[in-house]
Amino acid sequence: MVEKHIENLQKAIKTLQIADHMAYITYPVVKDKRLFLKILENISQTLLCTINAVLQHDYLWKKITLYQDPKSNFRIFKEKCAPRFGILKEEISQILDILTLVEKHKKSPLEFTRKNKVVIMSNNLRTTTLDIEKIKQYLVLTKKIIQKTNSGILHR
């Protein structure tokens, strides 16, 4: 039986491959900016699966205690797990940016495309833009996080 943390890591890798394919293969062909949001959701899903894999791994080895509250578990990930896996504070900050952007997208009353960007508008009429360069930066970050997690789990 495959342990849950390995299963989550495998799911994260598969979801990342889909996001990568959409950004580097599908988007250049179809040129549909709405793909940015789908890619962003896949990146977010990848990061959440990776974080869960790290938490489950450390829980399995009795290094941490897990809670029902996702915010408490993320705090544990940030404070206790991430340093052991070599995940930097700047990377955690970027992860939070991505997760926050996905939440804004989910709560957004209006999204539209302008030039080569997707504009996400919040209830208070603030806007956030997303373009292919930002997506590619997020993909690079996510690949680094998975690489660190993968080597941290496999070499323990």
Q: Would you mind describing this structure in some detail?
A:
With 156 residues, this protein is mainly alpha-helical. It has a single domain, classed as Four Helix Bundle (Hemerythrin (Met), subunit A) (Up-down Bundle), CATH 1.20.120. It is 71% helix and 10% strand. The chain is built from five helices and three strands. It has a three-stranded antiparallel β-sheet with strand order 1-2-3. A hairpin with a 5-residue loop joins strand 2 and strand 3 (127-131). Helix 1 packs antiparallel against helix 2 (35-60) and helix 1 (4-30) packs antiparallel against helix 5. It starts with a helix and ends with a helix. The mean pLDDT is 95.
Describe what is shown at a glance:
This protein has 156 residues and is mostly helical. It contains five helices and three strands.
Structural key phrases:
156 residues; three-stranded antiparallel β-sheet; 10% strand; mainly alpha; 3 strands; Four Helix Bundle (Hemerythrin (Met), subunit A); globular; 5 helices
Distance between the termini: 19 Å
Portion of residues within helices: over 70%
CATH superfamily: Nucleotidyltransferases  domain 2
Query: How many domains make up the 3D coordinates?
Result: 1
- pLDDT < 50 runs, ≥5 residues: none
Radius of gyration, rounded?
Answer: 16 Å
Summarize the topology.
Layout: H1 4-30, H2 35-60, H3 70-85, H4 89-107, E1 110-114, E2 117-121, E3 127-131, H5 132-154
Antiparallel strand pairs: 1-2, 2-3
Helix pairs in contact: 1-2, 1-5, 2-3, 2-4, 2-5, 4-5
